[in-house]
Specification:
It is a single chain. The chain is an alpha/beta fold. The protein folds into three domains: 81 residues, no CATH class; 346 residues, Histone deacetylase domain (Arginase, Chain A, 3-Layer(aba) Sandwich), CATH 3.40.800.20; 262 residues, 3-Layer(aba) Sandwich (Arginase, Chain A), CATH 3.40.800. Helices cover 40% and strands 11% of the residues. The protein is built from 26 helices and 16 strands. Strand 4, helix 11 and strand 5 form a beta-alpha-beta unit. Helix 9 crosses helix 10, helix 12 packs parallel to helix 15 and helix 23 packs parallel to helix 24. It binds zinc ion (ZN). Zinc ion (ZN) binds next to loops. The site of zinc ion (ZN) has 8 residues, from loops.
């Protein structure tokens, strides 16, 4: 963080009762001293002149302060674009190691994995939007944060070996090959990962991705394993702890294999939360380890900090992965409050991969990335691990990078209902972790022992004597390449279907007091008042009567100005202040259907009566309010959630993750309207959380209608919608037993209709 800026502004902020860094979006400031505002100010005299003066006696009037803040915001946006950017780390030298002999076990780990990913990034013009950070070699000292010096010497010695010697040393490990360039590439892979961590933690960039080879998550203190030589991500976590003193790091391993190497390094360490889902098939799938199962929760002080979600069958897809995020990873991660997220970003969990044989399509990784970006103030470092179907791999890499760049997400495809086997795994992990996490404290389900996949699995195992290496299926030969071509074709048309032109402006705002415009993030486009005649024409097309009512007409003005731009895809999302939110919302919904939308999710926060026809499923109305509606009966399209906020703390995580998101993803809206009415039972932080997490849906098309003119709320929602940075969600508070009961009741009532709610087998049976 720029010390000069902070020091010059801090006293001023203090005068006005505002605190650094909140008031100045300090995450946009660069970290290095030499990049600071003070040293640049000579070139920007006109701005320097207007910088806050750090003396209390000459403290400017409040209005003046806001002008200055705006000047600073503009300055930062123009000059420190880097600080909000996405790093991409790639060097084609990491393609210089490859398999030199015949080995069906290892021949899928090819240099083309990097080349095709990078080519595809170029194809989508993503490379030029990222900040290029050069690679470096990891030092011996850094490698030894995880590996022994003996092992380091072995890897080093392979540099000068001939093919015969390389083969022999490779045979000492499981599913590994060495090449004379392996040592150099592996050192670059470590260095690239650490460069990414440095760039993100120092604030030079917001997030980023490192495309590296060889991968890392299987390698262990004394052993290479499963194509992995040095454990890039585990080294990065140790490095971040040592160098930056971080105390809570989340590692999300979405590769289809269990990263047992990472588990071994951190299983006794409560400062690193490791989450992995993996193809397991009752221990019949490589690496065939008992400790990959759900009940390996960590050891000693690390108990509860190792989350394994074993997949006991192949074919898991988008809804299974999302269900595991909603019901396992995200609740625990928000409770953990990580300071940094490292992603062991393997794409063999994607469709068409010969290793994983799963069905997740590339946009699924966009959604997973989006959720992680809401944690750790958005500090996400994705590091490539596996991924062996080149097209599937490269499209998924692109979806990840596009999301890190904060583009709106494509709608997720496929039926939104997790399969029985996925729900069984989720239930087991939740039950195993119940003692360690408050978010699971009231979980009623217990571990299942008779899994639906077990008997069939055992029979197959006896019949075929499943091979013990990761690429057993390779032996099938031609059918695999036919499958691969089929996936190529599928992905070619699928990507065309889901990708869409990004609107030129992310967020628009129509607010009552235009004088408050300077309090919004700089990137938000402030809507000017609509021409009265224009408005009348627009309104009379739907409701001639309404035009006569001047007051109603005025309250519609802001809402229509923004909604119209969203529908015409001139902006992604927006906020509108309206004095009569209920009339405006009713009208807005009508406008949506006249425009041709099929499904609108309408979430009302506060007390408000909307007269809507909810039978045809075109509207899903969710009302979050404090008052107990004794008479109410919830139906598929009309849901009431009684919620009372915990004073000063945010207990809404449980409702958003366990209920609202699963319902919203099951419904798959074309647009969302969030209405904040009077007597709202949620605070600013909870509303921001809701707004941020819902943005994965409907291509981020959200209209937030706010009735109370409360600038702090407007600001926070604007921040959430525009994505300039992750807003503050407030301190985590666990849900009370009463809260949990409310959610559970709703789940029982609705899981038959909204299948993403299922997180235990009881749910599945009653809901099937
Ligand atoms: Zn893998």
């Amino acid at each position: 963080m720029c010390v000069a800026v902070r020091d010059s502004c801090a006293p001023l902020l203090l005068c006005h009762g505002l605190s650094w860094p909140d008031s100045l979006d300090c995450d946009r400031f660069p970290a290095d001293e030499d990049m600071c505002l003070a040293s640049l100010s000579k070139e920007y005299k006109h701005i320097h002149k207007e910088l806050p003066k750090p003396i209390c006696q000459t403290c400017p009037a409040v209005e003046e302060f806001f002008t200055q803040k705006r000047v600073l915001d503009v300055f930062c946006a123009n000059n420190f674009a880097m600080a909000s950017g996405t790093a991409l780390i790639y060097d084609d030298e990491m393609t210089s190691c490859k398999l030199l002999w015949d080995d069906p076990e290892c021949d899928i780990e090819v240099p083309e994995r990097l080349l095709s990913s990078y080519e595809q990034l170029k194809h989508y013009h993503l490379v030029e939007r990222c900040i290029h950070v050069p690679v470096r070699e990891g030092t011996e000292e850094e490698i030894m944060l995880v590996h022994s010096s003996e092992y380091l010497e072995v890897v080093k010695s392979t540099q000068t070996m001939n093919e015969e010697e390389l083969r022999r040393v490779s045979e000492n490990y499981d599913a590994v090959y060495f090449h004379p360039n392996t040592y150099r590439c592996a050192k670059l892979a470590v260095g690239a990962t650490l460069q990414l961590v440095d760039s993100v933690i120092s604030g030079k960039v917001h997030n980023g991705m490192a495309l590296v080879r060889p991968p890392g998550h299987h390698s262990q203190r004394n052993a290479a394993n499963g194509f992995c030589v040095f454990n890039n991500v585990a080294i990065a976590a140790q490095y971040a702890k040592r160098r930056y003193g971080l105390q809570r790091i989340l590692i999300v391993d979405w590769d289809v294999h269990h990263g047992q190497g990472i588990q071994y390094v951190f299983e006794e360490d409560p400062s690193v939360l490791y989450y992995s889902w993996h193809r397991y098939e009752h221990q019949q799938f490589w690496p065939l380890l008992r400790e990959s199962d759900y009940d390996a929760v960590g050891q000693g002080k690390g108990k509860g900090f190792n989350l394994n979600v074993p997949w006991n069958k192949v074919g898991m897809g988008n809804s299974d992965y999302l269900a595991a995020f909603f019901h396992v990873l995200l609740p625990v991660a928000f409770e953990f409050v990580p300071e940094l997220i490292l992603v062991s970003s393997g794409y063999d969990s994607g469709i068409g991969d010969p290793e994983g044989q799963m069905n997740a399509t590339p946009e699924c990784f966009a959604h997973l990335t989006h959720f992680l970006m809401q944690l750790a103030n958005g500090r996400v470092c994705a590091v490539l691990e596996g991924g062996y179907h080149l097209k599937s791999l490269s499209e998924s890499v692109c979806m990840t990078v596009k999301t890190l760049l904060r583009d709106p997400l494509p709608q997720i495809s496929g039926e939104m209902a997790p399969c029985l086997s996925a729900v069984e795994s989720i239930q087991n992990v939740r039950a195993a972790h119940k003692p360690y996490w408050k978010c699971l404290m009231y979980e009623e389900a217990t571990p299942l022992h008779n899994l639906s996949t077990k008997s069939q699995q055992m029979m197959e195992a006896e019949l075929i004597q499943t091979s013990t290496h990761p690429t057993a299926k390779q032996a099938v030969g031609t059918t695999n390449s036919d499958e691969a071509i089929k996936t190529d074709r599928f992905l070619e048309s699928h990507m065309k279907k889901i990708l869409f032109p990004v609107p030129p402006v992310k967020t628009a705002a129509a607010i009552v007091s235009k004088a408050d415009a300077h309090l919004l993030p700089i990137s938000v486009q402030v809507e000017m008042e609509m021409n009265a005649q224009e408005l009348k024409t627009l309104v009379s097309a739907f409701d001639a009567e309404l035009v006569k009512e001047e007051k109603a007409l005025l309250s519609l003005q802001n809402v229509l100005a923004v909604l119209d731009k969203i529908l015409k895809k001139k902006v992604c999302n927006g906020i509108a202040e309206s004095s009569v939110a209920s009339v405006s919302t009713t009208f807005a919904l009508k406008h949506c259907f006249d425009f041709g939308l099929q499904r609108v999710l309408c979430i009302v926060v506060g007390d408000m009566d909307l007269e809507l026809d909810l039978d045809d499923g075109k509207i899903l109305l969710m009302n979050i309010c404090q008052k107990q509606q004794t008479e109410k009966t919830n139906s598929k399209y009309h849901i009431s959630l009684n919620w009372k906020e915990d004073a000063g703390r945010n207990n809404f995580f449980c409702a958003v993750l366990g209920f609202i998101l699963p319902v919203a993803y099951s419904y798959q809206p074309d647009l969302m309207i969030i209405v904040i009415g009077p007597n709202r039972s949620l605070g600013v932080n909870a509303i921001s959380l809701l707004t941020c997490l819902l943005q994965g849906l409907a291509e981020s098309r959200i209209l937030v209608v706010i009735q109370d003119t409360e600038i702090k709320l407007v600001q926070s929602v604007a921040k959430a919608l525009s994505g300039v940075s992750t807003p503050d969600f407030g301190a985590y508070a666990p849900a009370s037993q009463e809260n949990v009961f409310e959610i559970k009741q709703l789940k029982d009532q609705l899981q038959q209709e909204w299948k993403m709610l299922r997180c235990s087998v009881k749910d599945w049976i009653s809901g099937s």
